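Holo prediction — flavin mononucleotide.
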Amino acid sequence: MPNHKQCINIDDLRLHAKKRLPKSVFEFIDGGAQDEITLGNNNKDFRNFRFIPRVLTDISHRNQEVELFGQRYSTPLILGPVGLAGLVRREGENHAAMAAANQNVPFCPSSMSTCSIEEITQKTSARQWFQLYVLRDRGITREFIRRAKETHCSVLVVTVDTKLLGARERDIRNGFVVPPKFTLSTLFDFLIHTRWLFDVGLGRKIKYRNFDNTSVNANSVMSITEFIKEQWDVSINWDDIAWFKEQWGGPVVIKGILSPKDARIAESIGADGVIVSNHGGRQLDGAISSISALAKIKASVSEDYPLILDGGIRRGSDVVKAIALGAKACMLGRPWLYGLASGGQDGVERCIEILKAEIDLTLGLLGVTQLNDLNPSYLSRTSDFDALG
Ligand SMILES: Cc1cc2nc3c(=O)[nH]c(=O)nc-3n(C[C@H](O)[C@H](O)[C@H](O)COP(=O)(O)O)c2cc1C
């Protein structure tokens, strides 16, 4: 497979990324926690839902645009936060920001990006979202919020499912730990991936640039990782959400909700939306898949409360199923990283284009012309031929 342009689906992009990246880097993005049960189910469980298409509807004019927090986008996709995207491609987050702006989708850079929020937002005039990890040092947390405001980010995403770090066993085996335990074969693997070696391995230093000019020593990825382990605020609770709302003054969305009870609390305390997510199966292995959690969460909140489905999207038909079950949009993690590894900014755009085309085809074959028309009556559960709605 010569390049990302020949990739016709997300799995092709994944295989292409696998060839381009050293094993330990590929497994860092591709892997999940422990037995990877949740990682696997995130995608597999979409198969529990099957389409019931309608026929003889006029599908000449199909439209997949969506409005999210007051902004109109070309498709219900969001490039989600991933730390260390610069390990995949030099200045990976900058490539993503430009791809997102060209395709008119939101990009939500992580607090743990290798490019600073200032660098990323300078790349385009499009407004980014910003993902916040909450540190014990509320001073740094407050600073992050101030900088995200100053750089005109439009939505603050607070990730709440990472108080402790999940056990990613592929990383442990590959020596991708603190301190790194690389073997000769790992180093050899770096050397034979020459394109990656010159772009990333010998490129500018990989570090968490959002921590530059803070009290935190940002000179080494590994020392920061240790710092974060010590500094992640494990005491954060629902009462803190009011503080984020007050500091931010715009839409605050909570990422990492799986329980209908938590979704209801989030709405009642004024969070502006929730992201139904298990962190792409990288945290609590055995947690319910995101798509399985969605219907009950939808039933527990108000009709128009914004829900975003995150995890396991590999096909446009997955997106359509999530929207039929009540999501407003879907967030992507690994798919855009595969695109990034495969072809930089172009590769990320290829990822979005593939999914857009698949969404359009699925809508047309379902007999639907716009996302608002989707509802559970277009789906049945496996081996049950009655519509859900
Ligand atoms: C390499 C990698 C790094 C990630 N880093 C973050 C992060 O810094 N903050 C965060 O909220 N989520 C992070 N996530 C989780 C993603 O935002 C998203 O929830 C997950 O990847 C969705 O699943 P998917 O990869 O199947 O699309 C990361 C995921 C990956 C694969």
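READOUT: The mean pLDDT is 93.
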